[in-house]
Amino acid sequence: MNKARTNPFNNIAMHGALILYTLIALFPVFVILINSFKTRKAIFREPLALPDADSFSLIGYQTVLKQGDFFLYFQNSLIVTVASLFFVLLFGAMAAFALAEYRFKGNTLMGLYLALGIMIPIRIGTVAILEMMVATGLVNTLWALILVYTAQGLPLAVFILSEFMRQVSDDLKNAARVDGLSEYAIFFRLVLPLVRPAMATVAVFNMIPIWNDLWFPLILAPAEETKTLTLGSQVFIGQFVTDWNAVLSALSMAILPVLVLYVIFSRQLIRGLTSGAVK
């Protein structure tokens, strides 16, 4: 078995597959970035070529900064994403701790009920959600998006975190209770640090769909002051004419924050895995 694990051909095949998958995943990002620095003619003439002295142009970025309120859209997307992730991780971890730690009547049914949220898309209830937001006066507010994304991410968060929390040693928690720690102290000071890999995973899984979503911002927050990046980029897409320079430039500027957040959460994931492996 050890020989199979150290077989150089297996390592080469595994790394080759990972490199191929990485290239396939990064190819659309590469195409968007290089074409955002080209003229309109160069985009359609040579879409895969790097910009040169003749094709290089910043007209797309100039259009985005002049015509669209990019910084407002970016601020709205950042607020919605960070706030939604905070509530998903907080409430998801609390619910997962309750399901994993305490045994009560209906514990299993409650877990299955929450798991249904993973299988049933939240967009099915768009009409009911819109009616509820209208009744509560939350239409065209960022809170409407935050609440919807929190509800959307909780089922997966509870499902993942509860499995990790069941692996936390009962002896460790009981020793903390003997030392006089409250349940809240055990949760925040003992359990949460041990499930950091799972929390980073939940954050990564929820971050990208929230940042890239167009459906709910278009329905719940279409006002100019509450537009997100994805919705604000649609201003450059017309029925008959599309400003592809501006569209690609807006997408390029929207990709960078996602990459930064992904790197941050990835580092936390690796740090949590390595620290959790030493006991």
Automatic annotation (TrEMBL):
InterPro entries: MetI-like, MetI-like_sf. Pfam families: BPD_transp_1 (PF00528). It is found in: Cell membrane. Residues 74-265 form the ABC transmembrane type-1 domain. Coiled coil: none annotated. The chain crosses the membrane at residues 12-34, 78-100, 112-130, 142-165, 186-208, 246-265. Its main location: membrane. Keywords: Cell membrane, Membrane, Transmembrane, Transmembrane helix, Transport. It comes from the Bacteria. Belongs to the binding-protein-dependent transport system permease family. This is Carbohydrate ABC transporter permease.
